Amino acid sequence: MTVHTAGSTAGRPARRSGTVRRLNRVVIRFAGDSGDGIQLTGDRFTSQTASFGNDLATLPNFPAEIRAPAGTLPGVSSFQLHFADHDILTPGDAPDVLVAMNPAALKANIGDVPRGGEVIVDTDEFTPRALQKVGYAHSPLQDGSLDGYHVHPVPLTTLTVQALKDFGLSRKDAERSRNMFALGLLSWMYHRPTDGTEKFLKTKFAKRPEIAEANIAAVRAGWNFGETTEGFAVSYEVAPAAQAFPEGTYRNISGNLALAYGLIAASQQADLPLFLGSYPITPASDILHELSRHKNFGVRTFQAEDEIAAIGAALGAAFGGSLAVTTTSGPGVALKSETIGLAVSLELPLLILDIQRGGPSTGLPTKTEQADLLQAMYGRNGEAPVPVIAPRTPADCFDAALDAARIALTYRTPVFLLSDGYLANGSEPWRIPAIDELPDLHVQFAQGPNHTLDDGTEVFRPYKRDPRTLARPWAVPGTPGLEHRIGGIEKQDGTGNISYDPANHDFMVRTRQAKIDGIDVPDLDVDDPHQANTLVLGWGSTYGPITAAVRRLQAAGESIAQAHLRHLNPFPRNLGEVLRSYDRVLVPEMNLGQLAKLIRAKYLVDAESHTQVNGMPFKAEQLAQALKEAAHAR
């Protein structure tokens, strides 16, 4: 955990002699083999940057294989970090600095580095065999193909082994610390504080202190190498983003971690035990891992044998009076669909967190996509309406979890929350809220009879509805006098008894739909400083790239506005009015146009899609160009 207070200077490294060049932003990409500890290196550099006070955004990118063949292109893992002295919205379109730990990492990533960018390579890995594995006929370090870049050839492996020669480690074990050497070098280059990393290593390897000390020594050796070698005569400084954040205490947070914290906060604000029924699936598993650590908050986690058992247990927990959650990704949603329909029929609060990934079927487990929107809206038999919300940034996942809980508890309904792999694994600074800033989510369980018969007898009617929300009572099993029938067969209005009456079924279907349609959601805000002709409408994780692209276009004088949806079912009540006030509506999505289909069907607006399904988030510059061309098309 990295915490800093906005405006604080704590933890900054001392200024060093030599040439220091001031920058306002930098994009760095670490890349190497899956076994090189690239994600750990990126995570630690991110934590150091967060503690320094920069605004930041990250993009971890790793293969789905548990262990692809070493040194091959399919086995390349990367971690990109964009940090700045001002508010930023994306992990960057292209890296200014590439750290390539082997030839495969160089070949897989060099195409993204603009000419003039800096490239740091581990020359020890550029052996004939390693070059042959990825199709290099000659070493790119010697054939002139990298002449357009500032290349820093560094024997990272040799330097790491030499730095750790007094620790009694085997050469293989010593080589494993070369990622920490690289981390130390980059920390020197960009004036990142390393004390947090040293504390982290001591904690992580508490049972093996010799490994902790070796890794710390590698970090320090990398720092000292940067300080003393002539190959890095210039270091860079990116000042803290003092004006980007409101006053408060911040920490770096990923989307999945923010969801976990949001769920815990919701359970505390509702004064309900939190139950998670889950089956591990990428990229949702981290939520299960995190929540399992918090039994002290009344959290119960159940790792089921399959997706169906997981949601069945969660629905049972909802019936029993818990704030019930199930987490999954697209393939798991397909398996859970029947039980979601049962939850619609039972009208019980249940949160379904779908951390979307590339499909169909198993698809791209470690890549991002937004293609489950229509599945969340309609992927059940019969008329089974479910509210759908989507967070926009990793930090926003915390608030989205609270919002999803509010809707589920208030309206007694299952709720879909659509995050995705980009948000789940990406991170940004998050202001830790005060307790009194959190919503009151307390619910009132049914305590006794709620209906009087014609003969004066008082009875409990499990489907007698709140006239404002249309929610039915939540009766905890075991409460005397509240016994009632549950199950998936259609229920009689009020009594909940089994009913095959056509008129009753028509009434119940329309009532369940009216309950969802009546959910209270805020009106849609529009960023339109100049009364534009074109509106860019987005949802979910496209917020960062869309906002960055629209800001560029607005700064260039383009007549363009932006709005971003959190609530996808029901839509904000003013959405139709907003859409009809623009000549053109553009909808960028990481699917083939699912929101655009919904917009066109509901509002009869000629929404135009701009789509991408390559497993990666939009790049702001490319999106800006596409939006500009679409806005000017006739």
From TrEMBL:
It holds the Pfam family PFOR_II. Gene3D superfamilies: 3.40.50.920, 3.40.50.970, Pyruvate-ferredoxin oxidoreductase, PFOR, domain III. Transmembrane segments: none annotated. InterPro entries: 2-oxoacid/accept_OxRdtase_asu, PFOR_II, Pyruvate:ferred/Flavod_OxRd, Pyrv/ketoisovalerate_OxRed_cat, Pyrv_Fd/Flavodoxin_OxRdtase_N, Pyrv_flavodox_OxRed_cen, THDP-binding, Transketo_C/PFOR_II. Residues 532-603 form the Pyruvate:ferredoxin oxidoreductase core domain. Keywords: Oxidoreductase. It comes from the Bacteria. Residues 35-222 form the Pyruvate/ketoisovalerate oxidoreductase catalytic domain. Residues 275-468 form the Pyruvate flavodoxin/ferredoxin oxidoreductase pyrimidine binding domain. NCBIfam families: OAFO_sf. This is 2-oxoacid:acceptor oxidoreductase subunit alpha. It comes from Streptomyces yaanensis.
